[in-house]
Amino acid sequence: MAKTRGQSNAKRAGTEPVLLSGGNPQIAKGYGDAPVQAYIAAMPGWKRDVGRRLDALIARAIPGVEKAVKWNSPLYGVEGQGWFLGVHCFTKYVKVAFFRGTSLNPLPPGESRTKETRYLDIREDDQVDEAQFAEWVKQASRLPGERM
Description:
By secondary structure, this protein is of the alpha+beta class.
């Protein structure tokens, strides 16, 4: 049976989130752990495991970390200081943005057009140095965050 336009829209309105360009989940803006967990659950394939590991590492490094989803990306921050880190799915990698990354030591490897931002791109077979990642998260959490 052929799908009609109405059936397609109904399916999208259900439990299956829409995947945007590069497989990035379209998740409604929201604050707290629930929208971040919804985003992670909607990450396609191997990216979901990366999302779970990153979320766990961040929560372990910064107990009580603030979480939100804005602009279809999970954000992590410290109450009253703003957001220090964001995650976004692309076709071949998961991008972690450290918003004040030029202040981290050592610098995360990816440069940005934005003056202070540095990136860590994680591809399917990459082994993340979890100790280094946790150290970057701790350093980033102590810096003034972005107000978004």
